[in-house]
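note to self: the first set is below, dont mix up w the second
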Amino acid sequence: MDPLPNPAPLASKLRNTLLRYHSIGDGEWRMAKKTKDATVWRKPSEEFSGYLYKAQGVVEDVTNRIVDHIRPGPYRLDWDSLMTSMDIMETFEENCCVMRYTTAGQLWNIIAPREFVDFSYTTSYEDGLLTCGISLDYGEVRPNFVRGFNHPCGWFCVPLKDCPGHSLLTGYIQTELRGMLPQSAVDTAMSSTLANFYSDLKKALKT
């Protein structure tokens, strides 16, 4: 088990990585799924043998409220159907923490429940916010869970210029689920999970 990293350089490196992903040209992405709430694209990840996913959709709410529902905190467990538990293990500053969370089984339990320990960081971006994270090798793995690993991930949320009560939410996700899994099952699950994330979030914000 590794010791906890120094948060400031890790946060800076994570933010720069997400900004780089956000500048990748449209031509490098291949569409993976489109629903009324979101479009999901993917490209081969530079971090591992799977894909980096990009999801994007317009959400009818202000930036701060949307990000409060996404980042570690009391809202996320209430609405994210994939997340089954969340504990804040360490808090460095108001916008920076280490959290442990578990996810439900997927695809008729072909994908068993997973546990993740993530460093999470939220910062300003243009007129909105960026909340991002990366997994750490920290804490004991609990029985009955496979420890997954999130390579640099994040959500950019900015108000629409013509309609500030709506926000453009763009996510970059690259999750290594680990364990003995067919990659095709993982890819199917990821596209659907990201599309469902938008529809669940929209429902939560309306309540």
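second set (the one i keep forgetting abt)
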Amino acid sequence: PNGGLVFCMEYFANNFSWLEESLGHVEDDYILFDCPGQIELYTHLPVMKQLVEQLQQWEFRVCGVFLVDSQFMVESFKFISGILAALSAMISLEIPQINIMTKMDLLSKKAKKEIEKYLDPDMYSMIEDSTNILKSKMFKKLTKSICGLIDDYGMVRFLPFDRSDEESINIVLQHIDFTIQYGEDLEFKEPKECEEDKSALVDEYFQDHVDE
């Protein structure tokens, strides 16, 4: 199945003219690409990078949204693995990236409290957790180096996403809109101007009646 997916994506990369015709050039379009979740497309192949570059050439503002299942991120070593996957995609695509921990609504209350520490993690405090679970001295030094790198540079943080919570959805959307500067070029009519125009019309109306 992965080989078939790789073939499809490479075929897609050779036919971007079809994509350009399908997208068109309408101002203020907000387009979502639901990308395949196979990590090798972002680590071993240039296809997704080519797609990003092509969209940027067409003057689209591009932002990556990396989704990780919260039910997977329940143990320290799995969390570190998820961060490395997100970091790998971020480095490969070289675009602004929002990292989201999904399916928070499926977690129990206990699991939600437990997973809070992963939203803004202290990687050094997780070193012992991950190495104790693995019970292997062989990878302690490597794990410590990885955790130190992630913590020192602070490159990956996760936003919680709960589809049953409207506020959670709005927070994620606001982060994405801010990243791509969506709506920044739109012209807004100031409310004060409207009020001033109305008052001027009212004054003119009364002045006309006084003159009469």
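remember for set 2: Residues 74 and 211 are 79 Å apart (CA to CA).
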